[in-house]
Each structure stands twice: as C-alpha cells, then as structure tokens.
Write a structure and sequence with these properties.
The chain has 168 residues and is of the alpha/beta class. The protein has one domain: Maf protein (Alpha-Beta Complex). A five-stranded mixed β-sheet has the order 2-1-3-4-5, sandwiched between helices. α1 runs parallel beside α6. The chain is globular and about 45 Å long.
Length: 168
C-alpha cells in the first residue's frame, strides 16, 4: 500500500505559504471541503490558511463566489471558466492572497459524454495575477476521484507558488 500523499503535500504547501507570507483560501465543489481539511490537519495552519468555501450548488457558487450566471449557462459548473471565477471570487471575498478552486464530476452518476465521471476542473489564483486552470480526468470510484482531485489541487498550488516566487 502506498503512503498517503496528502500530509506531505499539505506540509509543503504550508511551508511555502508561510515562507512567502501568503494566506490560502479554498473554493471547493466536488471535493466538499477535503482540501481545507487536508491543510488544516497540519498544526500551525492558522498561520497560512484563511478560510474555505464549499459551494456545491450553482446558487452557492454565484452567491458566495460571484460566479456569473452567464458562465454557468455557457460553460456549465464543471468547466475551467467556472473554476477560474470561483478562484477569483474566493480571493475577492477573503483576505487571502492565494486561492485553489475545484469543480468536477466525482460520480458514480452525473457524468455525460461531454463531461464524464472523473472530469475535474481546477484553478489556482494569486491576487493581482491571472488565474491558471486545467482539466484532469481521473479513474476510479467517487472516493478515488475526490482524493486524486485533492492531491492535484495541492500539487498545482505548489507549482503556482513556485512560479509566483520566481516572478517576484
């Protein structure tokens, strides 16, 4: 059995955020708060974790994060466009300077030919910079898709923090 990658990733995220003097906000849909749970499992995370939003419904994405109705209508909740608006909205609604957003189809139902089960869209944003986004397709059951989404969220955040540090 392989070791759980969440704790080492969360530790790396925390160390990078703390060293950079940055605060993190999460905007989660299909992961249901699991990213926030993973990072707050680290002692001292109050130094670098500001808050988390679980916006499972479209209405919650709009009300809490300012995702535009037009975006949801044109691209759907599971889209990079929505993920980017979630990330920017989380930054706007918080005191954080870095955001992770994730929205996807964890399954076992809810997928379509265009957006199959396992399709997950991510966005990472650093305040005053354009957000970065990507789409992944994960295999496995609901729990496996969600876990892989949390891992990719944290890996992507480390990449974005490294890029931001290189540009500063």
């Amino acid at each position: 059995m392989t070791a759980d990658p969440l704790t080492p990733l969360a530790l790396r995220v925390g160390a990078r955020l703390k060293a950079a003097g940055r605060l993190l906000v999460t905007a989660e849909s299909c992961t249901g708060g699991w990213i926030a749970e993973a990072v707050t499992a680290i002692a001292g995370s109050s130094d670098w974790f500001e808050r988390g939003y679980v916006t499972y419904s479209n209405a919650a994405k709009q009300e809490s994060l300012g995702v535009r109705d037009d975006t949801l209508t044109r691209f759907g909740a599971v889209s990079e466009e929505t993920a980017r608006e979630m990330a920017v909205g989380a930054l706007t609604a918080s005191r954080a300077s870095v955001a992770i957003a994730v929205t996807g189809v964890a399954g076992p139902s809810g997928g379509s030919a265009e957006k199959p089960v396992g399709m997950v869209c991510f966005a990472w944003a650093v305040r005053d910079r354009p957000p970065r986004s990507e789409t992944c397709r994960f295999a496995g059951d609901r729990a496996e898709v969600r876990r892989q989404s949390v891992v990719r969220s944290l890996q992507g955040l480390i990449e974005v923090l490294d890029e931001a540090q290189a540009q500063d």
